[in-house]
Amino acid sequence: MCILLTSSLHPDYPFILLSNRDEYFSRKTELASFRDESQTQLRPADLAREEHGTWIGVNKAGKVAVLVNFREPYTGDPVGEISRGLIPVMFLESKQPSDIWEKVVGEQTQNFQHVGGFSLLYGELKRRRGNSEGIEPLHILSNRSSKKNTVLKGRATVGLSNSEFEKPWPKVRIGTNVLERTIKSSVAQDWSEELLVQNLFTVLSTPTPESSQWQGLTFSQAFDMFPKSVFIPPVKSDTGSDYYGTRTQTIMLLRKDGYMKFIERNLHSSPNLFEIPQISEYGFQLDGWNS
């Protein structure tokens, strides 16, 4: 039950994005890397399906896409004929601007009829026109929401999880509030970038309730707790052969000079709960930011 949080409140970072991927620990995944020949598209890859899609990515042209599954009204997560993970990849690879791409991809996928439920944050990271600080509004596209496409105008902090964007789960309200407090503290106390990143990972890593109350629970027993917690501690699969929980955390920091920093922390890649987290960092200048 993943979550993403974004904010443009920091004067030195017009775009801050935080993401938790909640998944079974044994699901085959490759860590983030540049995945095209021109070394422009940065994303991890889900290897459980042959399409090798993703849930999060950014490219050097400034396109960003983050996908979360939509929890259907019934227990379970049906597998669509078309992988949801292809949708972010299709946007990152496209040459069309956001508004044109949304129409094109809808036609290509028959309005996502054969795609499992999802919500996608996407758009171009461009400096806002005029004298205003910040970036141009991003979009949210969903094939399960009553409002298919939302333009995020006038929203400094945004959260999205596995429900409709306009009907957020408690974890979204908790996450956006903590993120805003963290950014305000970082500005007031003039934190270094390293300290800011450290505290942003703290935002992503706090469970509700505390971790001790999750111990020993199975997926089914913890199911109703997922919408309330930004971080999901490991819970046993119902078969007992695997664990489910937050396994990958990602932070994107876009500096006001157009330099993007992408930090991925992979907590788990197997049912071994004593794995040492793997941390990867990438940095690059967005093309055309200063034009």
Automatic annotation (TrEMBL):
<dbReference type="GO" id="GO:0007030">
    <property type="term" value="P:Golgi organization"/>
</dbReference>
<dbReference type="InterPro" id="IPR008551">
    <property type="entry name" value="TANGO2"/>
</dbReference>
<dbReference type="GO" id="GO:0005794">
    <property type="term" value="C:Golgi apparatus"/>
</dbReference>
<dbReference type="GO" id="GO:0009306">
    <property type="term" value="P:protein secretion"/>
</dbReference>
<dbReference type="Pfam" id="PF05742">
    <property type="entry name" value="TANGO2"/>
</dbReference>
<protein>
    <recommendedName>
        <fullName>Transport and Golgi organization protein 2</fullName>
    </recommendedName>
</protein>
